[in-house]
Amino acid sequence: MQTTLKSPITFSGIGLHSGRAVRMTVLPASAEYGIWFRRTDIDGPDALIPARWDAVVSSRLCTKLANGRAEVATVEHLMAALAGCGIHNALIEIDGPEVPVMDGSAQPFVEAFLARGLRRLSAPVRALRILEPVEVTEGDARASLAPADMLEIDFEIEFADRAIGHQAKRLNMANGAFVRELSDSRTFCRNADVAAMRAAGLALGGTLTNAVVVEGERVLSPGGFRHADEAVRHKMLDALGDLALAGAPILGRYRGERAGHALTNRLLRALFARSGAFRLVTLSPAEAARLPGTGIEAADLRAVA
């Protein structure tokens, strides 16, 4: 069955790129509502923004949604938490242009969702079953979707900084794998890129406590990495959040090689441009039980691998 939160949850923080303080409330919603954002600081119908692949607009280093003059950026960690906790319907009220970065991961959102609990709704879960391979490339980066019985994410990255280097990981995302293995992995960047990002008006809210900053073989953020492969885990977290903009859970294998937000969105656009590449299916209870957010509990968050 579809789900929503039992009651509203409010988060406060700053935007990673804008540096602006923001207050955000995730509210329960009815069956078939989906995920929507509402800018409470903007009047009129444009204030509502769908969390959907075709509302994504061009941006650097994050996923940004827009509807006319209303925009909301850096939605990927929150979307990953919603998908990873199995929340299908929610209205997200936000009084600024960017989702708060919190600690740079999805963990604060996941902790709050699991503590509050979910309410089951009287509507079945529908999913997008991948029927044919779809792939997009840009230079040496590629992203693809291929048929599989459930969602799998396979990611590979390569950075010159020895603190990251080459990393690869593959996960079957069923039954809380996101919560246990990916949700606490933080965004990361190279120290050499920080000045350039800030000169371009980005990363204005970034600190050593809400992003992992590396320089060569050194990790500058206190405490170092939470996992030896935290960087690739975070890229997988981002991928789940960006794939959640498909509007329904995906049954298929996603593979990313040096892929980022823009390429994953291009992949969704390519998928929906090919009607024979997917089918919207209604899941049986047994099939729905294998989705990323089904059957998880607070103990899963404490069991991070």
From TrEMBL:
- EC numbers listed for it are 3.5.1.108
Q: Which sites bind Zn(2+)?
A: H77, H234, D238
Keyword Transmembrane helix annotated? no
- Top enzyme class: hydrolase
Q: Does the keyword Cell cycle apply?
A: no
Which cofactor is recorded for it? Zn(2+)
Sorted alphabetically, the Gene Ontology cellular component annotations on this record are: membrane
The UniProt entry, under Gene3D superfamilies, shows: lpxc deacetylase, domain 1, lpxc deacetylase, domain 2
Q: Which reaction does it catalyse?
A: a UDP-3-O-[(3R)-3-hydroxyacyl]-N-acetyl-alpha-D-glucosamine + H2O = a UDP-3-O-[(3R)-3-hydroxyacyl]-alpha-D-glucosamine + acetate
Keywords in alphabetical order: Hydrolase, Lipid A biosynthesis, Lipid biosynthesis, Lipid metabolism, Metal-binding, Zinc
Q: In which pathway does it act?
A: Glycolipid biosynthesis; lipid IV(A) biosynthesis; lipid IV(A) from (3R)-3-hydroxytetradecanoyl-[acyl-carrier-protein] and UDP-N-acetyl-alpha-D-glucosamine: step 2/6
UniProt-annotated catalytic positions = H261 (proton donor)
Name the InterPro entries for this protein.
Answer: Ribosomal_Su5_D2-typ_SF, UDP-acyl_GlcNac_deAcase, UDP-acyl_GlcNac_deAcase_C, UDP-acyl_N-AcGlcN_deAcase_N
Pfam families xrefs: LpxC (PF03331)
Single GO biological process annotation from the record: lipid A biosynthetic process
The molecular function GO annotations come to: metal ion binding; UDP-3-O-acyl-N-acetylglucosamine deacetylase activity
Q: What does this protein do?
A: Catalyzes the hydrolysis of UDP-3-O-myristoyl-N-acetylglucosamine to form UDP-3-O-myristoylglucosamine and acetate, the committed step in lipid A biosynthesis.
Which family, according to UniProt? Belongs to the LpxC family.
Q: Which NCBIfam families match?
A: lpxC
Protein name (database record): UDP-3-O-acyl-N-acetylglucosamine deacetylase
Originating organism: Rhodovulum strictum
